[in-house]
Design a protein that fits this description.
Order of helices and strands: HEEH
Shape: globular
Strand order of the largest sheet: 1-2
Number of strands: 2
Helix content: 25-40%
Length: 129
């Protein structure tokens, strides 16, 4: 009987240790995401302490050559534009839109790519569905 008590007391510190490791992992892994956005388009609009590009209210639109930082963009082309004109959901930005099909028929959302997904920062889905 004494042997069973000894083994259970030995198991408890291990469980506490692994619980602490898991808690630390969650704290570090789910903390504030680090993302170093490209210079173009500039991410200089602060929302709750995080920087966004100017087209954040319309993330599925692309910029135009004459007004790349305009708040409202245009329907995205079927070929990838220069970085300054990309939509927020572009592959390499915050999504997987690769401009291989028309924007009107493509499945588009901000699921993350090089930049974090909307879930990472906002904890909610942000898509056009």
């Amino acid at each position: 009987m004494q042997r069973l008590v000894q083994s259970s007391t030995r198991a408890r510190p291990r469980a506490v240790k692994w619980g602490a490791v898991a808690g630390l992992w969650l704290l570090v892994g789910c903390g504030t995401p680090e993302f170093f956005p490209p210079a173009d388009p500039p991410h200089d609009v602060s929302k709750d302490g995080h920087m966004h590009a100017v087209r954040l209210e319309d993330p599925f639109s692309c910029g135009t050559a004459d007004a790349p930082n305009a708040k409202r963009g245009v329907t995205c082309p079927t070929t990838r534009p220069v970085d300054a004109l990309l939509s927020c959901d572009a592959s390499g930005c915050h999504g997987s839109f690769d401009f291989s099909e028309p924007a009107a028929t493509a499945v588009r959302d901000l699921v993350g790519s090089e930049g974090p997904s909307c879930y990472t920062c906002h904890g909610a889905k942000w898509g056009n569905d």
